[in-house]
Amino acid sequence: MISLTHLAAEQRSQDVTDWAARIGWVVGLLLVIALVYWLMREGWKWRGTLQGDLPELPEAPAEPGPAKLALTGRYHGSTTAGQWLDRIVAHGLGTRSRVELTLTEEGVSVVRPGAQDFFIPAASLRGARLDKGIAGKVLAEGGLLIITWQHGDRRIDSGFRSDHAAEHAAWVEALDVRDVDAPDVTDDVKHTEHYQEGAR
After folding, report:
1. Which among 45, 46, 75, 186 is most buried, taking Cβ atoms within 10 Å?
2. What is the DSSP letter of 46?
3. Nearest-angstrom CA–CA distance, 26 and 33
4. Prediction pTM value
């Protein structure tokens, strides 16, 4: 009888010890998650400080004119053009959100419920393309509409995904503008042809 009583007491003690270990693991896990979140937030703030030279975002004109195209979907972030992991967080550009895009003669209006709206003037547009990733967000090939634009001294890629992906192609076509900063190779081609003719 004494032996059975002793075993029962040991079992109860073991149960208490197991619960203490579990609680310890949970508390430790929560502390690790909190630390990771804090480090991410500090990194985000530091990146925003480094991008402090980015000018304030343009606002839409009072009368932007009739809409040529419109879509609703999600805004997935902005990066330095051509560098899909170099996220831009200044002025709220790093905040993912729902979005309403409208294209007019004046430019592209970006309305983001719960986040800062902005406007891309027509003169700042540098084109658009379909891609699969931006700012750490990866989708199927062609799943993202990337609009490239100039803001101050920085060229920016902004990523959007329409609720109806078939709409992306129309935006790429409509924003197919000549890049004014791209080198003009026409003269080079003419000179090459002239030299080739002279060599014959």
Report:
1. 75
2. H
3. 11
4. 0.67
